[in-house]
């Protein structure tokens, strides 16, 4: 197998025309340079260098090989220069998989403002899909409410969420500060799909209150819930920080329902030190979004 250390030593000698200068360039001793070149010649049974008093010249075979090594290590030097430039000016591609575009957009805007050379990609899905994308290395970072501590996974909390009741803007309850869960009995409820964090949290709150509040209509996304509410099909249950700005809709708190687990940024621990990932996490920071204060009590 070709020994690149030996080849690099020969290339340095060919470029510098001297074993001494080649050793200085590669920061090794002259005997080491000489040994590498001799080993290369011996292994392939070819003479590459003529050694004379105070001078070094290449044989015909050495000239031919030097043309190859100049191209080879020229590309290596070019690669090193490119990598150094990337290290100095943040660039590259970062993929964020989020369960909430409303939570993700301010973070992406902050990253774009500070580091315009970074290509940002956003994928959307539910909380479990976001976490699964990181675990399968299909995304660099997940923004999710379904992350629990596990080996090899780094979690950075942002802020807690609360369950809200989503109403048409003209609904009689729209001016209230909060609504009791019991008041929802008999109301047409628009709920997320079974298995979503929002649906699970709502059903747990109902169970704690001893209430059975079934879905009048089950919908597969928060956007579908919002459109159904705006169309007058019923009342939606959503998470704070995921409602966006829509003049057709209003939200009120659900009384007595505790805060949920915080939104988390999640990444594989072994990639947390990568500059792109580290920078995004630092820009987000704990509590950097505009969600609900985790220390707040249930309303």
Structure, described:
It is a single chain. The chain has 299 residues and is α/β, with parallel strands linked by helices. The longest helix is centred in the N-terminal third of the chain and has 29 residues, at 60-88. Helices cover 40% and strands 21% of the residues. The protein folds into 3 domains: 4-88, Winged helix-like DNA-binding domain superfamily/Winged helix DNA-binding domain (Arc Repressor Mutant, subunit A); 92-159 and 262-284, D-Maltodextrin-Binding Protein, domain 2 (3-Layer(aba) Sandwich); 163-255, D-Maltodextrin-Binding Protein, domain 2, CATH 3.40.190. Helix 1 packs across helix 3 (30-44) and helix 2 packs across helix 3. The protein has a 6-stranded mixed beta sheet with strand order 8-12-7-11-9-10.
How are the SSEs placed, and which strands pair?
Elements: H1 4-16, H2 19-26, H3 30-44, E1 49-52, E2 55-58, H4 60-88, E3 92-98, H5 101-114, E4 118-124, H6 127-135, E5 141-144, E6 153-157, E7 163-168, E8 178-180, E9 189-192, H7 197-208, E10 217-219, H8 222-230, E11 235-239, E12 249-255, E13 264-268, H9 275-284
Parallel strand pairs: 3-4, 3-5, 8-12, 9-10, 9-11
Antiparallel strand pairs: 1-2, 5-13, 6-13, 7-11, 7-12
Helix pairs in contact: 1-2, 1-3, 1-4, 2-3
Question: What does the oligomeric state look like here?
Answer: single chain
Q: What is the CATH homologous superfamily assignment of the largest domain?
A: Periplasmic binding protein-like II
Q: Name the average pLDDT.
A: 86
Count of discrete alpha- or pi-helical segments spanning 4 or more residues = 9
**CATH fold group of the largest domain:** D-Maltodextrin-Binding Protein, domain 2
Total of domains: 3
Strand content: 15-25%
Gross geometry: rod-shaped
- Counting helices, strands and paired strands, the structural category is alpha/beta
Approximately how much helix is present in the residues? Answer: 25-40%
**Any low-confidence stretches, pLDDT <50, length ≥5?**
287-299
Give the ordered list of helices and strands. Answer: HHHEEHEHEHEEEEEHEHEEEH
